[in-house]
Amino acid sequence: MTTIVSVRRGDQVVVGGDGQVSLGNTVMKGSARKVNVLPKHKVITGFAGSTADAITLRDLFEQQLDKHQGNIVTSVIQLAREWRSDRVLRRLEALMLVANREKTFLISGSGDIIEPEDGVIAIGSGGNYALSAARALVDNTDLSARDIVEKSLNIAAGICVFTNDNLTIEQLESVG
Questions:
Q1: Domain coverage including residue 117
Q2: Which one of 90, 120, 139, 163 has the fewest beta carbons within 10 angstroms of its own beta carbon?
Q3: Residue positions in the annotated binding site?
Q4: Residue set of the binding site for Na(+)
Q5: What is the pLDDT along the chain (176 residues), one digit of tens a residue?
Q6: Longest alpha-carbon distance in the chain
Q7: Looking at the domain assignment, is residue 171 inside a domain?
Q8: Which UniProt keywords apply (predicted)?
Q9: What is the pTM of this model?
């Protein structure tokens, strides 16, 4: 279980996540890295769910980015289509957030592709806590996107037993 949150504010997009890996009610690891940058395409990915499944999906997404010259929209659509229609991939249990300088998407195995209306989205066991905190901070403070992600993840860690405060936060700046 985990918590991943993304915030767009000004010319920044930030994706952050905690490091907890749980198996049932047991914390197996506290320092996993569930947020990564794909430097070739300047895309941040974050995942919640089975680690092996998420790594498989991240690799498939990167292949789609390569195939479609970094076009995030086409790559997201093609990944969701492949994930939903392939009998083996359909069994993968994970959610992904992907963000580049212009767009952020949540992708699920049920074929969902969600682009947040307000620039804030979260997934995972503590996702609703982080989402609520991030939305409140966006609406009521002048904090940077990075500070909002950090604070919302720490709030989630204080509430959700499947979220810790060992954070990985990645940021991209918008162009022009």
A1: 3-166
A2: 139
A3: 157, 160, 163
A4: 157, 160, 163
A5: 789 999 999 889 999 999 998 888 899 898 999 999 999 999 999 998 888 888 888 999 999 999 999 999 999 999 998 888 777 777 777 889 999 999 999 998 778 899 999 999 999 999 999 999 999 999 999 999 999 999 999 999 999 999 999 999 999 976 54
A6: 47
A7: no
A8: Allosteric enzyme, Cytoplasm, Hydrolase, Metal-binding, Protease, Sodium, Threonine protease
A9: 0.93
Specify whether the backbone of 22 is left (phi greater than 0), alpha (psi in -120 to 50) or beta: beta
Q: Is residue 65 part of a domain?
A: yes
Measured from the Cβ of residue 112, the count of other Cβ atoms closer than 10 Å reads 12
Active site residues: 2
Residue 120 resides in a domain: yes
**Domain CATH code at residue 124:** 3.60.20.10
Within a 10 A sphere around the Cβ of 56, how many other Cβ atoms? 16
Domain assignment present for residue 140? The answer is: yes
